[in-house]
Design brief:
10 helices; 28% strand; seven-stranded mixed beta sheet; 14 strands
Length: 315
């Protein structure tokens, strides 16, 4: 009988995803979280943090390209960038493709994530950690960001979901208030907003908090991140200089061609289409923008999540 390792993630109440490990690469308990890296048949190498899929080598390009290139090309003059989280290096890799970027500061609370990514996931960071424009600061982003004022053209919040782990301090009202101060007057903040059909409360709470902190309606766009399951992945963005204006397809094509960057998923068409929301998703966003008390938004019922998380099975 062959023993096979399965990694389970609970997506939402009553729904688990199981990934079959072909080879275990690392299992580390850091000061802040449990990290495992393993090889799979269809998703390539997978990094899990605290039982949640953090990144896969087969699908990460979709997430990182949509997270970075949409706001960068909309802004069109990005020079100084702050990445909060992003320890696998994918967001840094994408933003450093832009020749006009002069400085990228990355804040991460867990230095071991960067070390593990260097050793086991070099195809994701692809040398970004060694780029002379890149600066790494280790510490809690919520504690460090008040040190910056009017510094950044773009802030990328590339953190794990706010489910009680190390990133929970990055989804508070006070953190978003400090992000506003750290941005330049025309700066943009973009954050991952989870899979909204499984986690509408996460997307809505972020839209609500950003809208209140920035005193402007936050918006969302979508990307087809298949490796996070549950449908499209939401990206939340906001700016301190009024409502973000989406661009015409012709203007996006012009800016993309001028940027002269290589991508696998991102294209002007993918960028343009990412802002077309379904009727129910638009209603979720509008409800969040108008909400003055985030606690009134739809949340999972207490006790609704079970604890069934088997670790292994046998053939």
């Amino acid at each position: 009988m062959t023993k096979i390792k399965w990694h389970y993630e609970q997506m939402t109440s009553g729904i688990h995803v199981a990934l079959r490990s072909e080879k275990e690469l690392a299992n580390v308990e850091t000061e802040f979280q449990d990290v495992s890296i393993f090889e799979t048949r269809h998703l390539g190498k997978v990094m899990r943090i605290d039982d949640g899929i953090q990144v896969t080598t087969r699908g990460e390009h979709i997430y990182h390209e949509m997270m970075v290139h949409v706001p960068t090309l909309v802004h069109n003059r990005v020079k100084n960038v702050l990445i909060v989280g992003g320890g696998d290096g994918g967001s840094a890799r994408e933003i450093l493709k832009h020749h006009g970027v002069e400085k990228v500061v990355m804040l991460d609370i867990d230095e071991q994530i960067i070390e593990l990514s260097r050793e086991f996931l070099p195809e994701i960071n692809n040398g970004a950690f060694d780029d002379p424009r890149f600066e790494l600061r280790i510490g809690d982003g919520a504690e460090i960001i008040p040190q910056y004022s009017n510094c950044f053209d773009l802030i990328v919040l590339d953190a794990a979901d706010p489910d009680g782990g190390a990133s929970e301090t990055l989804f508070t009202q006070s953190f978003f208030n400090n992000c506003l101060s750290a941005l330049k007057s025309d700066g943009i903040l973009v954050a991952q907003g989870g899979t909204p059909y499984f986690e509408p409360y996460m997307m809505q709470s972020m839209v609500s908090r950003l809208t209140q902190a920035f005193n402007n309606p936050a918006g969302i766009y979508m990307g087809g991140c298949f490796d996070y399951f549950g449908g499209s992945h939401a990206f939340i963005w906001a700016t301190r200089s009024g409502t973000i204006n989406t661009l015409s397809l012709e203007e996006i094509e012009s800016r993309f061609n001028k940027a002269d960057i290589q991508t696998k998923y991102y294209s002007p068409e993918a960028h343009f289409g990412s802002f077309f929301l379904s009727k129910d998703m638009r209603e979720y966003v509008n409800q969040a923008v108008k909400c003055e008390n985030v606690d009134q938004l739809s949340m999972p019922e207490a006790g609704d999540w079970d604890d069934y998380t088997p670790e292994t099975s046998h053939l």
